Amino acid sequence: GAVVSQHPSRVICKSGTSVKIECRSLDFQATTMFWYRQFPKQSLMLMATSNEGSKATYEQGVEKDKFLINHASLTLSTLTVTSAHPEDSSFYICSARPTGGLLYNEQFFGPGTRLTVL
Amino acid sequence: KQEVTQIPAALSVPEGENLVLNCSFTDSAIYNLQWFRQDPGKGLTSLLLIQSSQREQTSGRLNASLDKSSGRSTLYIAASQPGDSATYLCAVRRDNQGGKLIFGQGTELSVKP
């Protein structure tokens, strides 16, 4: 149980295009999901907290107009990188926190999406 | 501002050795601490979660301890195996609101056959 999927796993796009990444909780509901970014050999940096039915909360320094987050249901959050540039190339990982139950204290992570912007 | 530090950044050991990974955090007011494993190019797998009121958690060959007052946690791996090779990350959660995790930089472990 507590499986999180991401799609796509890998994407290559041209500079200036937009890319959407999906994060799904497969066997539980998640009111809250989190989006992280990870550069090579570095740790995860929280970008934003996504709450179902409301606006996302962005961390300091993260451009909300560039990284659009939509959490339309209790099992799906999407991150859209708008007008992507090479410096946006990174590994994007989402996590989901169960809405209730014994696992409420934990976050479950997706397998990540490798974005390469040419 | 909470900062999480992991030492060492990289570790290489022969198969069979017992080893300890260290994690320290600057603000002792945490809700819980979690250890994760990350394989190259993959997401995170939760290994152990320690609530702030707990001292340790065990799962198989893994044992994690927490000393909140000194801002330290250790992950002990017994009888290491080549399959344990991965990056190990610790993360702290400040409170039960929001659930944000602050991660350390990770320890890259290599277990040689």
Order of helices and strands of chain A: EEEEEEEEEEE
Largest sheet of chain B: 6 strands, mixed
Molecular shape of chain A: globular
Query: Biggest β-sheet of chain A, characterized?
Result: 7 strands, mixed
Short recap of the structure:
The complex is a heterodimer of chains A (118) and B (113). Chain A is mostly beta strands and 118 residues long. Chain A has no helices and eleven strands.
Essential attributes:
heterodimer, A: 118 residues, mainly beta, seven-stranded mixed beta sheet, four-stranded antiparallel beta sheet, B: 113 residues, six-stranded mixed beta sheet, five-stranded antiparallel beta sheet, globular
Task: Explain what you see.
The complex is a heterodimer of chains A (118) and B (113). Chain A has 118 residues and is an all-beta fold. Chain A is 0% helix and 51% strand. Chain A has strands at 4-7, 10-13, 19-25, 32-38, 44-51, 57-58, 67-73, 76-81, 90-97, 108-109, 113-117. In chain A, the strands form two sheets. In chain A, strands 2, 4, 5, 6, 9, 10 and 11 form a seven-stranded mixed beta sheet that branches. In chain A, 33% of the residues are buried. The mean pLDDT of chain A is 92. Chain B has strands spanning 4-7, 10-14, 19-25, 32-38, 44-51, 56-59, 62-67, 72-77, 86-93, 101-103, 107-112. In chain B, the strands form two sheets. In chain B, strands 2, 4, 5, 9, 10 and 11 form a six-stranded mixed beta sheet that branches. Chain B starts with a strand and ends with a strand.
